[in-house]
Specification:
It contains 14 helices and twelve strands. It is an alpha/beta fold and about 400 residues long. The chain starts with 10 loop residues before the first strand and ends with a helix.
Amino acid sequence: MKRDRQHHKKRAIVLTQAGGFSGIDDDLIRHLADRWELRVCRLPPTSRAQRAADIIGSFSWPMARWKRRFADRASRRPKSVEGFRRRTRCAGRMLAGTDGEYDVVLQISALFAPGGDRTAAPYVLYIDMTAAQACRVYPPWAFPERERDEWLGLEGDVYRGAARVLTFNQAAADSVCRDYGVPADRIVTVGSGFEPSSIPAGVPQRETGMLVVSNDFARHGGNAVLETFREVGRRIPQAGLEIVGAVVEEPGVISHLRLGRTALQKAYWRSSTLINLGPVGGLQSTLEGMACGCVPVALRTNPHVGAIASQYGVALDEVRVEKVASLLTQLLLDEKGMRQKSEACRNAAHELYTWQAVVPRIDRALEEAADPHSDSVAERRFERELAEWT
């Protein structure tokens, strides 16, 4: 018994974490709610006691590297095996607390498994990158071998059990297939989006040549950015650098530890390029910056923004200060080329990377995953509603 989408929305459970995932949860959920009847289950944050237990349980020699793991933002992600299992148990309890009559589960991230009886409904994962990718870009001490192998095993089970794995980008899709053995026909690259209503209309001012938006300036190549800026400044004395996410006292540099939404949008409008020299991250700021005409500059190997920079901005094969400075100098001095790139970035952001563009792709994948399960759910619901009427 097929249901008419015009008269009855299918039902989905959204499993995510308190505080959200990559800054996308609320916008994604709001747009999906136009197409699905949603119930959102947010896993509670890790308590201080649990965090302390994870840290103690992960102890390994040498102590200096173990301490560094928990001082470096890259390693403070909740990738402990016990944390994975704890979140999985919590997810299972949350799913058990529903009536069971949902068509599909959408789980945002692979930091846990859906838990409970997986035969109750198919589940779909939505991820930005895999742990296998992280192991290739972070230093070896960030993921000790024993924990790494166990984590990769748990994460692989989640991928292989999913009806579909949706990814932000092709690099993540390739990793899910190659590193975890998931058939390619169950992996869909849907992209990620931004909310255009959060980008107020503005006029490009381009007062600042370079902009960095980062929650971890050092990890995102902060030192290389400063060296590059000094070199560009010798060639273009009027060039400026604006940093959001760190305080840096240096001539020609404007810096803010944090900015509100409106102030951040103004920073995008007055900048020509958005710089990210880190190995990962930066997708949301890149999309928002492009919507304001900022041209992205990033490592080609960055799984989040490398492909975007290759197509619309400047993609770097490596971080060599002199070469990066030469490319930036050439770009900033070419006013016509800069205007063309800026316009192409704005068009791409608004045509390809808004949630209005991305959510239909997610919707199709959820429909495909839900279809084999939907009829039995609909029949049970119809029988229940009929009994209530009679």
